[in-house]
Design goal:
The chain contains eleven helices and 23 strands. The chain has 405 residues and is α+β, with helices and mostly antiparallel strands. The two termini are 38 Å apart.
Length: 405
């Protein structure tokens, strides 16, 4: 059967938060552009955008020269304003980062220095002040307080942006990217789409789409499964409680999160997955992905890049829950381990691997082809940064004369 042919100025592949935010920014600046956004799923926010923690990050973890540092504080402000303006759910509970010992206090002050450089509101507080903000948190002498960290409902935000876009942008669900036909044409599930510019925000498959355009060939995506445990007592904490992270890897460690409806969850894991959408059991099993991912992970294990062996073993232990409960208990004065009620719906982190250096990429990565833009590493805090990230991407497109008024 001959497929329908569509024409667009811009086609966006991937209707997660980043893809929709970019489409929204393009439409706002250039309302005459014909924009088509496609997604392979039948609904919105089926993957990372709907399965993340919902935490709106402040932006103090990131080195000042990084894109994450540049975009997170502004992203926090824009997303908070968006939720308040549209009466979307938001819990402005704040966050404390606690230290276990003297060595971690040094890292705590490093986070404060980074936050100051990134224009983030932060305070180093003593145990007495900590008790007024989060009475159940336990720290060694001092803690870091972030008043602008909050929680939203990710799916609600995505649906709100999609509702805006439906008035001036064509959203096509159940429409997977199949292949690039030539420099300005792609084939999807049921259509042929011609375009002037192509935006790849395909999440777990962004590398595959980019490679078909000859872009990002030194990178591949590795999936890491994130699991949270639910806790039955909503009064356990008032604020998010986080440990001091290992600043050499992109994962923040087990922490306690207040959800937008006031519940408490503990996690996440960062367990190496064996195919890209390995959410539960053998669901979405893909042989070629299994071989490819296992091969990459085996190489990292063999050379022990970025201490991958310890990371893998430590994270695998969290599958049994006890390790996560113990790590959570280290952050608090009181925790009843009998009140945990099992794992919540899992998410998959699409973590970029630089194959040349055999290391995980810490920062956002955006690369361009002749008439294409590829979001290759939109890991946390990409949801927080969605609107500032969209501004950044569209600015770059305009500087390259890709879109015009």
């Amino acid at each position: 059967m001959k497929k329908e042919t569509l024409d667009a100025d811009v086609v966006v592949v991937g209707c997660g938060i980043v893809g929709l935010a970019i489409a929204r920014e393009l439409r706002a600046r250039h309302p005459r552009l014909a924009i088509i956004a496609i997604d392979k799923e039948s609904g919105l926010a089926c993957h990372a955008s709907g399965r993340n923690s919902g935490v709106v990050h402040a932006g103090f973890y990131y080195t000042p020269e990084s894109l994450k540092a540049r975009l997170t504080a502004e992203g926090n402000r824009l997303l908070t304003e968006y939720c308040l303006k549209r009466s979307l759910s938001i819990l402005r509970c704040g966050k404390v980062v606690v230290a276990k010992n003297e060595a971690e206090m040094t890292l705590l002050h490093e986070l404060k220095r980074r936050g100051d450089a990134n224009n983030v509101a932060l305070e180093i507080i003593g145990e007495e002040r900590l008790a007024t903000i989060e009475p159940n948190a336990r720290t060694h002498q001092e803690a870091l307080y972030s008043p602008t960290t909050s929680t939203i409902n990710p799916r609600e935000v995505v649906e709100s942006i999609a509702t805006e876009l439906r008035e001036g942008c064509r959203l096509l669900l159940n429409e997977a990217f199949i292949r690039r036909i030539d420099e300005d044409c792609i084939e999807t599930t049921s259509r042929i789409i011609r375009f002037k510019h192509f935006i790849n925000s395909a999440g777990l498959y962004a590398d595959k789409v980019a490679h078909s355009f000859g872009v990002g060939l030194d990178y591949t995506l590795l999936p890491f499964k994130g699991l949270y445990l639910a806790y039955k007592d909503d009064g356990l904490v008032r604020a998010h409680v986080y440990p001091v992270p290992d600043l050499k890897n992109p994962f923040l460690g087990v922490h306690l999160t207040k959800t937008v409806d006031g519940h408490v969850k503990v996690g996440p894991t960062a367990i190496p997955a064996f195919w890209r959408e390995q959410y539960n059991g053998l669901s979405n099993f893909n042989v070629s992905e299994f071989v490819e991912v296992l091969s990459s992970e085996a190489r990292l294990f063999a050379v022990d890049s970025f201490n991958f062996r310890k990371l893998a073993f430590d994270e695998m232990r969290k599958y049994y829950g006890g390790r996560m409960k113990d790590e959570a208990a280290n952050l608090l004065k009181k925790l009843d381990q009998g009140k945990f009620s099992g794992f919540l719906s899992p998410g998959i982190r699409a973590q970029l691997l630089d194959r040349r250096a055999s290391k995980l990429v810490m920062d956002f990565v955006v690369e361009h082809g002749e008439n294409s833009t590829h979001i290759l590493n939109a890991v946390s805090p990409a949801f927080t940064c969605a609107f500032s990230f969209a501004n950044f991407v569209v600015d770059k497109m305009q500087n390259r004369c890709i879109v015009h008024s």
